[in-house]
Amino acid sequence: DAEITQSPRHKITETGRQVTLACHQTWNHNNMFWYRQDLGHGLRLIHYSYGVHDTNKGEVSDGYSVSRSNTEDLPLTLESAASSQTSVYFCASSEGSGTVYEQYFGPGTRLTVT
Amino acid sequence: GQSLEQPSEVTAVEGAIVQINCTYQTSGFYGLSWYQQHDGGAPTFLSYNALDGLEETGRFSSFLSRSDSYGYLLLQELQMKDSASYFCALSNTGKLIFGQGTTLQVKP
What we know:
- The complex is a heterodimer.
- Chain A is built from no helices and eleven strands.
- Chain A has strands at about 5, 10-15, 20-25, 30-40, 40-50, 55, 65, 75-80, 85-95, 105, 110-114.
- In chain A, strands 2, 4, 5, 6, 9, 10 and 11 form a seven-stranded mixed sheet that branches. A four-stranded antiparallel sheet of chain A has the order 1-3-8-7, with no helix packed on it.
- Chain A is globular and about 40 Å long.
- Chain A starts with a strand and ends with a strand.
- In chain A, about 40% of the residues are buried.
- Chain B is mainly β.
- Chain B is about 0% helix and about 60% strand.
- Chain B contains no helices and eleven strands.
- Chain B has strands at about 5, 10-15, 20-25, 30-35, 45-50, 55, 60-65, 70-75, 85-90, 95-100, 100-105.
- In chain B, strand 7 (about 60-65) and strand 8 form a beta hairpin.
- The interface of A and B includes residues 31 and 102 of A.
């Protein structure tokens, strides 16, 4: 069965370190998204991609970067981790272009920055 | 910009019907989606309204009124397993904008 996976599931890191969160999907979806979820803020879009070599900034992109070298993977990098980036991170994918209404989410990565 | 507003919490009794409202502000959108998220889990897609009116999917129904900038999710025959957070989301060009979510607590 097709799926979307994230690794690691839990990560503790120190302020200032570079951290990369992995996202891998086997749906063969062109669209991939990264969100962060904090209490009281719902899901906020960090970065997204509509295909290989395409990346776009979301509403909370400062301090994060992504790259898309193939269809299956969209790793999220925190260049210099800050305590404000402690959060739960979800990756998602969807098919098609234009109207996007159904996204498939990974299980999430809980990141703690100390 | 775009924004959505939902009640933060709703409580209902097992077997009852509950409605979770969502009001929004946007200059344009394709439709309104609803997602369910159990504590600590991944959000999962429930329903989508591209047009005004009611969409029914089993015990869940979703409604959209573009003229009122308003939608709701209706859950019937509530079960304990329906205790979760529910998010409305605007479908815009190529992406979703999520509300802050409503936590539904179902009591026996």
